[in-house]
Write a structure and sequence with these properties.
- The complex is a heterodimer.
- By secondary structure, chain A is mainly alpha-helical.
- Chain A is built from 13 helices and two strands.
- A two-stranded antiparallel sheet of chain A has the order 1-2.
- In chain A, helix 3 packs antiparallel against helix 10, helix 11 packs across helix 12 and helix 11 crosses helix 13.
- The longest helix of chain A is centred in the last third of the chain and has 27 residues.
- Helix content of chain B is about 30%, strand content about 25%.
- In chain B, strand 7 and strand 8 form a beta hairpin.
- The longest helix of chain B has 16 residues.
- Chain B is elongated.
- The two termini of chain B are about 40 Å apart.
- Classes of the chains: A mainly alpha, B alpha/beta.
């Protein structure tokens, strides 16, 4: 439809644009998919990404201090994300805080940590490698896009070939059954949140690469967009269905839609509202067949 | 006694208390090696508590469990499995979105998962080994929710047999109501399977259907009120005999207040149902006169619970009509039912019957809001005097009217739930779905008395009783349901009660 309305939309260059613009969202969605598969929800990505963005920008070569840790700095930022995820998971299983509240809290903590590190002066990165990720291209796509592709692949492997991935799926399907089979569920829940946190951490690093600076708001809006993309891709909010590949398709659909709206001249101010409509419609559409099926089974 | 002759599993004097109820009151049970033991008992006899104790889901207050002569403590499903005891649960306990192989190996993956990494080929092979043991042809990599009920049950049995890997001796397999979801052909397959299992395991088989129990078991132990009351060799026994043991001798005292039974007028029926059909029942006709208590009896799956809910509009009925005092009411609306003077006391009191943390007063006035309000506002004084009046009339034992209902005993909770329908003063028909479930004898008797009083005041009652005895004791008339239809109607006046066995004949 967009292709008919706008000749620009059809161009190869625009396809590249969509892919590049989708990179960060794809990585974040990859992480959140595992949490959604369990039937939990994760609203912490914005805060975690902010903290990771500031961390990485202060650890690689930058204008604020003399650090030049390069890849090690990136690894630290990813691990920080992992730790935040761990925190969400522990609050869930030990303190029995519902996941939406636990992760919302962790998001606020992440933003707080990021604001402290920001300390009023924006850290601009001078690290050539990290800046290059957003600019240099390989086979027509930016390095960030290839990183996203790699993340999806890794995510798919985790989902298909590890106990962690399969149990995340099973927890969403029937958690009680796991307990009756003698499986200790709690460690897996924490691990899933930690895994998701690592993906958000990487997402924060990628945003920093795009902006050339570490910003507190690096993850602004990604929490909601990632859930939208995962749901549009067919992952159920009640858990037990969907997966990383589904989510990848969902990310592309959402990006094509927003990109298409811009190309046909819809004001960008509309985009937030449109995204909201999409997620509500997608959830409603996913629930209808589910209801019908339940009636047949029971 | 040599180890080879030791019972595979023995239970001595098992006791388990729940608040207000003694679920197990010194149960004894012996499961010999390579035998199929049947376990029979009415609802509330303690079967499910006993089974849970055997797989470590319930910790008994007293008594011992012996596995092959050795005293054991079973604190979790895993510990029970380590001693070779496994159970196929009544509600199927498989993860629907995993493959059959994963479900079979869940919790004991062995070589199929190394350092957290799946090896699907190994998993497929290990699962196939389990399926081969029971001669099943299911594809191990099929998604579980794509399998039929019968196939899923085979997967469950294959899964339970994994405990052989943990214990050093033949396992004890418990099957809790395995036939309730199967069709008759599938039941035959299951029974062939159970006979096969006997070759290398002991089996405990639990079912409501006594003919099935006698068909497949070697021996049957009967439970009643948390005690083992008898043991029968299955060969040559008849269901009638078992049933007599299950219900025991009826008490000679007037437990059901039969002398208070009201005389039913023969005017126009208060409730009149014609051709009511839903997904689990068809063509139900039912009349209940003012002051009459009609009980619907039937085995698990007969559809009687759904009929009861459909009368209240809580379960969609697809056809038919319901009239109250001649006026037709909307089939799909609980609101319409309330407005027509119908009250429903659900079986799951704690989930559907009451709002646990809310006060006695608020629970009591939940439905009939008008009774406690002045205009759009709650009138505290009005509510207080109304609630106090009913607390006194039903002798509800509660510290104050503001006590949270969940702190009351089961019997008093149930009285509050009943009072909810009475405070409006416009109740015409009460639907009582297992109103005495989980109550002790004293509380039961009080509920019976209350039912009699209501009937005497002209309220019509439809009762789904907890036991056949209760149905016979309370009802003026009994409808027997089987497989979604009313198969017969039995008059049940005081002084001319039918025997439980007459009813059982029609139920199975």
């Amino acid at each position: 439809m967009f292709a008919a309305l706008s000749p620009q939309f059809r161009s190869l260059g625009n396809a590249q644009n969509i892919m590049d613009a989708a990179a960060v969202l794809a990585v974040v969605t990859c992480g959140i998919t595992f949490v959604l598969m369990m039937g939990s929800i994760d609203l912490s990505s914005a805060g975690v990404m902010g903290a990771s963005a500031l961390t990485v920008s202060l650890l690689v070569a930058n204008n604020r201090n003399d650090n030049d840790l390069g890849l090690l700095g990136i690894a630290v930022a990813v691990l920080l994300g992992c730790a935040f995820g761990c925190l969400s998971g522990l609050a869930l299983v030990l303190l029995k805080v519902p996941s939406f509240m636990a992760t919302l809290g962790v998001s606020a903590i992440g933003l707080g940590v990021a604001t402290l590190m920001f300390a009023g002066v924006q850290p601009n990165i001078t690290d050539a490698m990290l800046k290059g990720w957003a600019i240099d291209r390989f086979l027509g796509l930016s390095y960030l896009t290839w990183i996203a592709v790699a993340c999806i692949l890794v995510g798919w492997l985790i989902q298909r070939y590890t106990r962690l991935g399969r149990y995340a799926y099973a927890i969403g399907g029937a958690e009680e059954v796991l307990a009756l089979s003698g499986v200790k569920v709690k460690p897996y829940k924490v691990a899933v949140f930690a895994l998701a946190g690592a993906f958000y951490g990487l997402g924060g690093v990628m945003v920093t690469s795009q902006l050339g600076a570490g910003l507190v708001q690096a993850g602004n809006g990604y929490d909601f967009s990632a859930i939208t993309a995962a749901v549009v891709g067919g992952t159920l909010l009640t858990g037990g269905r969907g997966g990383v590949l589904h989510s990848a398709v969902g990310v592309l659909l959402v990006m094509v839609l927003t990109n298409g709206l811009v190309q046909v001249g819809v004001s960008p101010y509309w985009q937030g509202g449109v995204e909201g409509l999409i997620v509500v419609a997608a959830v409603a559409a996913a629930v209808i067949p589910q209801r019908r099926r339940n009636q047949v089974v029971k | 006694m040599s180890v080879a002759e030791m019972p595979a599993l023995e239970v001595r004097g098992l006791v388990k208390h729940y608040p207000g109820v003694k679920a197990l009151d010194g149960v004894d049970l012996v499961v010999r090696q390579h035998e199929v033991l049947g376990l029979a008992g009415e609802n509330g006899a303690g079967k499910s508590t006993l089974l849970k104790a055997l797989v470590g889901l319930v910790t008994p207050d007293a008594g011992e469990i012996y596995v092959r002569g050795e005293a054991v403590k079973l604190r979790s499903v895993v510990e029970a499995a380590n001693h070779g005891i496994g159970m196929v649960f009544q509600e199927q306990s498989l993860v629907p979105n995993l493959t059959a192989a994963e479900n079979i190996l869940l919790g004991s993956e062995g070589a199929s998962v190394r350092r957290g990494l799946y090896r699907w080929d190994v998993m497929r092979r290990l699962a196939q080994e389990q399926l081969d043991k029971i001669g099943s042809k299911i594809d191990p990599l099929a998604r579980t929710d794509s399998l039929s009920f019968a196939d899923r049950q085979m997967v469950e049995i294959a899964k339970v047999l994994r405990i052989e890997q943990r214990s050093q001796h033949p396992p004890v397999i418990i099957l809790d109501e395995p036939t309730s979801v199967l069709e008759s052909k599938e039941i035959d397959t299951l029974f062939a399977q159970i006979r096969r299992l006997r070759e290398f395991a002991s089996v405990v088989f639990v079912s409501h259907r006594l003919d099935e129990v006698l068909d497949v078991c070697d021996r049957v132990t009967v439970l009643r009120s948390g005690q083992s009351v008898g043991e029968v060799a299955a060969a040559g026994a008849v269901p009638r005999e078992l049933h007599r043991m299950m219900i025991g001798s009826t008490g000679s005292d007037d437990h059901y207040h039969e002398n208070a039974a009201s005389v039913v007028g023969s005017e126009q029926p208060r409730l009149s149902v014609r051709g009511l059909s839903g997904k689990s029942f068809r063509g139900i006709d039912l009349d209940v006169a003012a002051g009459e208590i009609v009980s619907i009896v039937g085995v698990h799956g007969s559809g009687r619970e759904d009929v009861c809910r459909a009368l209240f509009g809580a379960e969609p009925a697809t056809a038919g009509e319901i009239r109250m005092d001649g006026r037709k009411i909307d089939l799909r609306s609980t609101r319409a039912a309330c407005a027509a003077g119908i009250g429903y006391v659900p079986a799951e009191r704690k989930i559907e019957g009451m709002v646990g943390p809310m006060s006695v007063a608020d629970n009591m006035t939940l439905t009939k809001q008008k009774a406690r309000c002045a205009g759009p506002f709650v009138a505290p004084a009005k509510q207080a005097s109304l609630v106090d009046r009913w607390i006194e009339r039903l002798s509800i034992r509660t510290p104050t009217r503001d006590t949270a209902i969940q702190r009351l005993s089961g019997g008093n909770q149930q009285k509050v739930v009943l009072a909810r329908w009475l405070v409006g003063g416009d109740i015409k028909l009460l639907l009582l779905d297992h109103p005495t479930r989980g109550l002790d004898i004293g509380a039961r008797s009080e509920v019976y008395r209350l039912m009699r009083e209501l009937a005497a005041s002209g309220v019509a009652t439809v009762l789904l009783a907890d036991s056949l005895e209760e149905a016979i004791g309370m009802a003026d008339r009994i409808l027997v349901m089987n497989d979604g239809r009313v198969v017969t109607e039995v008059a049940c006046p005081a002084g001319g009660k039918p025997s439980p066995l007459d009813l059982v004949k029609e139920m199975v």
